[in-house]
Each structure stands twice: as C-alpha cells, then as structure tokens.
Amino acid sequence: MILPKRVHHSISKRKLKTKKFSAGKTIYAGEHARLKGLLSELGKVRDDLANKIHKQMDELRSKNVQLKNVANKQLKSDEEIHIRTLAMESTADGIFIINAQKPEFPVIYANQAFHTMTGYLKREITGQNYFSVYGNEADNRVIDEIKHTIRQGRTFHGEMISFQKNGKKYWNLLRIAPVRNAIGTATHYIGIQTDITAMRAKEIEIDEQREELLHVTRVGKLAEFVSSLAHEINQPLTAILSYTQAAQRMFAGREPELQEILSYIVHDDQRAAEVIQRLRSLLKKSKSEIKTIDMNALINETMELIATDATVKSVFLKAELENGLPLIQGDRIQLQQVLLNLISNSFDAMDNNRGAREIMIRTTRKDTGTIVVSVKDTGCGIAAEDIPKIFTHFYTSKPDGLGMGLSISSSIVDSHGGRLYVENNPDRGATFYFTVPITKGDAS
Amino acid sequence: MKERGPLIYVVDDDASVRRAVSLLLRAHGYSVESFPCAEDFLSFKHPKVPSCLVLDIKLPDIDGLALQEAMTARQLSIPIVFITGHGDVPMSVKGMKAGAVDFLQKPFTAKKLLEAVTIAVSKNKIQNKESAEIAALRRRLKTLTPRELEVFRLVAQGMLSKQIAYKRGTSLQTIKVHRGRVMQKMQAKTVTELIHFAQKTGVTPPKS
C-alpha cells in the first residue's frame, strides 16, 4: 500500500516542475512544439503507469483478502479437529479407525476408552491387526461375520463376547461402518464399541429369576393339580373300600368265592390309593421360606421381571406404592407368584382391548394390621355370575387354562393370613385385591 | 336309664362315602346317623348314648375344625375321628390338639376305622360316666342346707371338726352332726371321698 502512494507523489511533483520551466524561460517556437509533444507523451505514459498500478493494487487487495480467508479457515478447522479429537477421547465408548487398504486391517487410531476396554496400550494396538484385539477365545463366527460384512463395504452391528489382554471376559456391543473417499472406495472403517457386561448380567439375572419363578409356578400348579385330583379320586376309592369291607363283614364265613372277589377289590383299591399317595409325595409342596419382606420392593422386583412381557403386549404397567409401609412376614417366591399370576391374568383380560391397556398396582395400608395390594386392569372384567367360581380348582375362562392360577394364589394368600378377592371396576376391567397382615411389632 | 348301643355320626359331603362308611359301621353292629354338612349335624337332637363322630375335615358349610370348635362351644362332647382326602398334616396336628381321637387318610381300611371308632366310643363312655357322676353329685349338693354346705366346704378345705366348732362358736357335737348329714346326703363313704366330691362339684377349687 505504501509503495503505490510514493509513486503517485513523485509524478505530481514532476508535473509541477514542468509547469515552472515553461513559465520561467523564453523558448523558440520549434522547440516549443517539440516540448509540447514530449509533454503529452509523458502524460500518456504517466496515465498508463497509474492504471497499471491501480490494477495491481486491486489484485493485491483481493489476494490479501483471499489469504486472510484461507488463514481463518485453517484456524477454524484446526479448532474443529481439536474438539473432535477431544470428544472422541472423552467418550466412554471405544472408538477406533482401521486402515482398510492394507490386508491386515491395522488399527490406525483408537481412543482412550478403547484402550481401557481392551486392556491394551496405545503402542500395542496402533498398527496391529484389528481382529487380534478381542483375544483368541473370541467367537470366531462373529469375527468372520464382521470380516465378511466390512469387506463388502456394509456396516456391522452386533454383540460378541470379547476378551481383554489379561483374559477378562466382557460383552461387547460393536458397530463398524466404512469410511469412503471421493470415488466411493472404503479406505477406512470406523468402529464404536460399548461394554455391556453389566447390562447383560442384569438381563441374565432377571431371566434366571423369571425362570425360577416359572419353575416354581409350574411345580406349584402341578402339585395343586395332583392334590385336587388325588382328593377327587380318593373319595370314590374310600366309598369302594368301605362298601367292599362292609360286604366282607356281611358275608363273613359264607360264600368263599365272593369273599375271594371282595378281597381282590380291597387289594386293588389300596393299590390305586398307593399310586396316588406316591404321586402326591413326589410333588410335595416345598416348604415355604418365611422371611421379612418389604412389599413395595417385592412389587418393584416383580414389575422388572414382567417388564419385557408388558412391552411386547403393549401394556402400560404403573405402580402407586404407599411410602413407608411396614414390613410383612412371608414367602418371597410365593407372594411373587401371586403378583405375577394376577398381572398375567390382567394381560390376558386385555388381549382384545382396542383402547388403552393399563395395569395399575397399588399398595395401601388398610388399618393398623393389614396391607392391601391391588392389581387393576382395563380388561374385559369378570361376569358377575363367575366371580364366586374363579377361585376354585379347575375353573377357567381361558381356552388353554388349567384353572389353577387363582386357586393357588388364593391358597398362598390364605396361608399368609390374608384374603384374595376381586371387584369389577365401575368403568371397565377388574381389580384384584389381596391383604397381608403386618408383622407384629412393626405395626407402628 | 336304659343302656343302648353306641351311636356313630358320619358327616361327609360326598354321598357315596357317607353311604359306604355308614354301611360298613352298621355291618359291625353300630347305629349310624349321617349328615352331608355340619349344620345338619349340629341341629340334630343328640341322644345321650356313647357316641363318636366320623368327620370329613373339608365340608361345604364350615370346615371340620370349625365344627369341632362349635361343638366345644355347645358343650357337645363327642370324640371326633377326622377323615380326609387331602392328608393335610398341619391341619391334623391342630385337630389332634383340639381333642380329635384319630386322623384317617382316605381311603382307610375297615380295621383302622373300627379301631378309631372303638377308642372314641370308649372315651365317650368315660366322658359320659364322668359327667353323669358330676350331675348326680350336683343333685345331691342341692339337698344340703346352707349350714351343711358351709361345713362341707370347711371339711373339704381340711379343717378338723374341732376347728370348725371353734370358728363357728358352736359345740363340737353340733358340727359332728352336720358332718354326718353331709356325708350321708353326698353319699360319701370316707372323708377322702367327700373331699374328692367337693372338687368335682366345684365346692372347692380342683386340684392343680
């Protein structure tokens, strides 16, 4: 900017000098004309020069602006890269980049979380084959699937058991996607992995609990079934035995053939009774384990067990549990069985619901000595004439029902010193209630 | 009172069981009354003969154990033989504690039933004899004059005639006459027996 200014200045000085010269001396006419021509030429040159300089100045100016923009851009992108790198290093998910153009798939970048998760140091991973970081024990089928998927340039999403450097097992939720260049070649892969071991453990725990409960419920149903059946069959067996032994007495000392037949009947009657007795002792109800129980905690636990089923069946499961309920004495598994039975009945009752499917579980304190638990649904309700029958053995309204669920629930609640009953809701659906006595000494 | 054979009550809601068990007991010489529910049994007018109740533990109206309690409340003391198709052990323990004679699992043999019934009937005979004796003693007690009753109480408490005379401010002779009348009216042969009678009729508190 300084240079063009100086040029301009000296030109205008020269112009002034010329004027002084023409005014101060007497000059011949011919000489005058020549000078005049020279002057005009000079003016032209000067103008040309000025134009050129202006043009260059403009160019320089725009170049300067361009340069500035480039510099700014560079600065900005440096900052962005810095933030991105920082962010990648900060996340708890493991992030890594693989070079796809080399056959051994070397890892070219891995964030801190990835190192922590795999147990390898940066220098132990960088440049190494990606597939070696999950340990030799890692499921080869999954590894092959990942290789296959990414070779085809598709994205991988899956779970696999992986092993840290020290052999420690973890559940790995893995997503890998190709990074493509301008012409669409996958030059790199970016992967994200999450350690879901804790989540998995919780899932497994819930599955196991549910399995145990289902088993207990199945055994309980069978035992109750056999017990009822045994009773039903024992009645006629009793009658047959007594009739026969009465006849034996009446014909005592007479009719030897008839006596023989009667003794056979007695024998076979007792044989049948023994079969039933054996069957019953085989399925003896396991002794209940009475412990101190927090009913609200038990309900929360049960809701966790059935949460997946509720989601699958689009049921909205809610709870309103009274705070600070006193503790009760009872068998945790048995009470959970009652809750699950009531909830799954509600599921069934709402199977054909068009509207909202909702289950509300409430706990309240009825009086100083009793807790009431209620399970309310928006299902089809229960026909008034059926209400007295639903708690009896073998009564069912379901095509595939055994008719044992509510009768077992009822006997469990009975054995806890409570009562199980039902009411239809004024709008729709039904509410089952059961009471449990509060542990003495805790009824504050 | 004319001596009659023992009477067995059978209470079971299963008609077939009821009929068969009744038939069996009759075949063994017992008189039998049978009922399908507890209420029918309770409203029956029970004759004063040695009896026994063969009772199904699960009944349609009230269960067997509740009937047992209702009988105790009505002072209907008939020994019970429980029968059950459930084999419910805790229930049986409770029943036994409340005075059931036996607890038979269905189906039971004639032998087992008859044994239990025999025991129950003889237990009831003893009970009846006891209560008849107490009733007789109470009747005798009512024939005593107030003065005699007082002497009876003091003698039963172990006081000597001399002490009673001193306490009452009467002559020993008078007390001896009263005591003689008490012995005679209560039909006691010895003083020991008299003391025993006093306990049975509640004149003195029973021996702990």
Characterization of this structure:
The complex is a heterodimer of chains A (444) and B (208). Chain A has helices at residues 2-24, 29-90, 112-118, 122-125, 140-151, 197-250, 256-282, 295-312, 332-349, 405-415; strands at 94-99, 107-110, 156-163, 169-180, 186-195, 290-293, 316-321, 328-331, 358-367, 370-377, 420-424, 430-437. Chain A is an alpha+beta fold and 444 residues long. Chain A folds into four domains: 2-81; 91-195, Beta-Lactamase (2-Layer Sandwich), CATH 3.30.450.20; 202-282, Helix Hairpins (Orthogonal Bundle), CATH 1.10.287.130; 290-437, 2-Layer Sandwich (Heat Shock Protein 90). In chain A, a hairpin with a 7-residue loop joins strand 1 (94-99) and strand 2 (107-110). In chain A, helix 1 (2-24) packs antiparallel against helix 2 (29-90), helix 8 (295-312) runs parallel beside helix 9 and helix 9 packs antiparallel against helix 10. In chain A, 23% of the residues are buried. Chain B has 208 residues and is of the alpha/beta class. Chain B folds into two domains: 7-134, 3-Layer(aba) Sandwich (Rossmann fold), CATH 3.40.50; 143-201, Arc Repressor Mutant, subunit A (Orthogonal Bundle), CATH 1.10.10. In chain B, helix 1 links the parallel strand 1 and strand 2 (31-35). The longest helix of chain B is centred in the middle third of the chain and has 33 residues, at 110-142.
Notable characteristics:
heterodimer, A: 444 residues, alpha+beta, Beta-Lactamase, Helix Hairpins, 4 domains, five-stranded antiparallel beta sheet, five-stranded mixed beta sheet, 10 helices, 12 strands, 53% helix, 19% strand, elongated, B: 208 residues, alpha/beta, Rossmann fold, Arc Repressor Mutant, subunit A, 2 domains, five-stranded parallel beta sheet, 5 strands, 13% strand
